Automatic annotation (TrEMBL):
InterPro entries registered for this protein in UniProt: SGNH_hydro_sf
Signal peptide location: 1-24
Keywords tagged on the record: Hydrolase, Signal
Gene3D superfamilies: SGNH hydrolase
Organism superkingdom: Bacteria
Record-given protein name: GDSL-like lipase/acylhydrolase family protein
Organism annotation: Flagellimonas meridianipacifica
GO MF: hydrolase activity, acting on ester bonds
């Protein structure tokens, strides 16, 4: 028996040891940290090429906070997790966004994009309204920045302008052949954007360009010419639609140059402009009228309507055009406005008073800035000269169905080219068109249960200019780029959280 007693201390030690083992087995170890890899890509030297969407333009301006919230800067933060290097940005001087050229602020130069202060949401007697931030921006365009810059996004740039030598020259500003943003950081007076980008020896690049080749026509209400079939940009005006062949040659040359030394990359197609708040915010029938005003307007257009009846009787127009051109107002909240439509039959040879007038329909798209113009007086001394009612809106305020069709045709050709380039060079491809269409149609749910939409000012997806994304919108786009890169190159980049970025700058 004494031998068994002698074993008790040993048994106790074994029990303690087993107890410790049980505790060890129930303790959950910390998960191994995720190791992010670049797959077959090399992110060590990333260069982005494009226009305002690449630069981080927001609220109608380029400013430091917006540049920091650009989608390429978000990509660079992901690339840094997998071997990415520094990402240098040609920062503006402040968060106002405005600029001067040789100290002058009155910059009325052909071809120069707007470089006024950014917008903020001011609360006026008429309700919330986008308003330029007061003060004067301290960025002087002619003060050259030193060094090289990874973000080569240039507000206002068209596809073929990215190849143009002298696009960053001070002298070119006076002739409308240079871009003021590129003037600040171009390597020389004769430099091109592509030349400066290629000189950096990028190992990876992004290209999102071509939107201005169609957007400037759209945002100016179709006040331009569709240049399809004319590949000579020297014959273009600023708001013209670029020939698809010219765009294809420009984007093809950029990709061929950037991939010549084996660089990988990602390219995105172009969104449908009819999906952005600039064209979806103002209804076609925005005019409230009382009975007296409606009756007065109907009386004013009675002679015009009578002239249309005579033109129809003489077979100058058919019944459909007669109905489309007859102008009638009713008392109530939702009256269409009167516009000039160049696609109507010209009847002025029959009667000089029968100009090309009609009222808007649900097929028309009034541009965002028309909402502060409709209802103003064409003549301050004439209270009856109400723009959009007694005085028709000019073409620049509305996209008609015919103008929308020209845009859609060009867009389809552009996007077919972009996808073909991605396939030809083995690039990651981002369907930005489908993404922004979904944002407009249904919104995009977020992790906290909120939904980012394209609703102007409150949706969180777009900035106050109605064209460019908000920081949160840029984050959503950045994630689409990351997803495409991961799929193509086998990387495992995490993306960004859109909720970490504001949906609207509050001041």
């Amino acid at each position: 028996m004494k031998k068994f007693y002698a074993l008790f201390p040993l048994l106790g030690l074994l029990l303690i040891a087993c107890s410790d083992d049980d505790d060890a087995q129930t303790t959950t170890p910390d998960p191994d940290p995720i190791v992010f890899t670049s797959g077959t890509a090399d992110f060590s030297n990333y260069v982005s090429i494009g226009n305002s969407l690449t630069a981080g333009f927001s609220d109608n301006a380029l400013f430091i906070a917006g540049q920091e919230a650009s989608f390429p800067n978000m990509l660079a933060s992901n690339f840094a997790l997998a071997g990415g290097g520094d990402f240098n940005i040609p920062f503006m001087a402040d968060n106002l966004g405005g600029a001067t050229i040789n100290g002058l602020t009155d910059l009325d130069m052909d071809g120069s994009p707007d470089i006024g202060n950014r917008l903020f949401l001011a609360f006026t007697a008429d309700g919330p309204a986008p308003t330029p931030v007061p003060g004067q921006g301290t960025t002087e365009i002619t003060e050259k920045l030193s060094g090289t810059f990874n973000n080569m996004g240039l507000p206002g740039a068209k596809s073929y302008e990215l190849l143009a030598e002298g696009y960053g020259s001070v002298a070119g500003l006076l002739m409308g052949t240079a871009n003021p943003y590129f003037v600040r950081f171009s390597s020389s007076e004769s430099a091109s954007v592509l030349g400066d980008a290629a000189a950096q020896g990028a190992t990876f690049f992004s290209l999102w360009a071509g939107s201005n080749d169609i957007l400037l026509y759209a945002t100016n209400g179709g006040s331009g010419v569709d240049r399809t079939g004319n590949p000579n940009p020297l014959e273009y005006d600023r708001n013209d639609i670029t020939d698809p062949g010219l765009l294809a040659n420009a984007l093809g040359a950029i990709v061929q140059t950037m991939t010549a030394n084996g660089a990988g990359g990602v390219i995105a197609n172009l969104p449908d402009v009819t999906d952005i708040p600039f064209f979806t915010t103002v209804p076609f029938n925005p005019a409230p009228l009382d009975e007296a005003t409606a009756a007065a307007l109907n009386g004013a257009y009675a002679a015009y309507n009578g002239g249309l009846q005579l033109a129809f009787a003489g077979n100058a127009i058919d019944a459909d055009e007669l109905a489309a051109r007859t102008i009638t107002f009713t008392a109530g909240e939702s009256n269409p406005v009167v516009i000039l439509d160049e696609d109507l039959t010209n009847l002025t040879g029959i009667n000089p008073a029968l100009v090309n007038l009609r009222q808007t329909t649900s097929d028309d798209l009034l541009i965002l800035t028309s909402r502060t113009f409709i209802g103003t007086l064409a003549n301050p001394n004439d209270p009856t000269s109400v723009n959009g009612l007694a005085v028709p809106l000019e073409d620049r305020w509305v996209l008609t169905p015919e103008e929308q069709e020209a845009i859609a045709t060009a867009l389809a050709a552009y996007n077919q080219t972009i996808e073909a380039i991605a396939d030809q060079f083995g690039l990651a491809f981002v369907d930005a068109n489908a993404l922004l269409a979904e944002l407009n149609a249904n919104g995009l749910p977020q992790a906290d249960g909120s939904v980012v939409t394209s609703t102007f000012a409150t949706g969180g997806g777009f900035s106050l200019d109605g064209v460019h994304p908000s920081p949160r919108g840029y984050a959503i786009l950045a994630n689409a780029f990351v997803e495409a890169i991961n799929e193509t190159y086998g990387s495992n980049l995490p993306g960004v959280n859109p909720l970490d970025f504001t949906g609207l700058y509050i001041d």
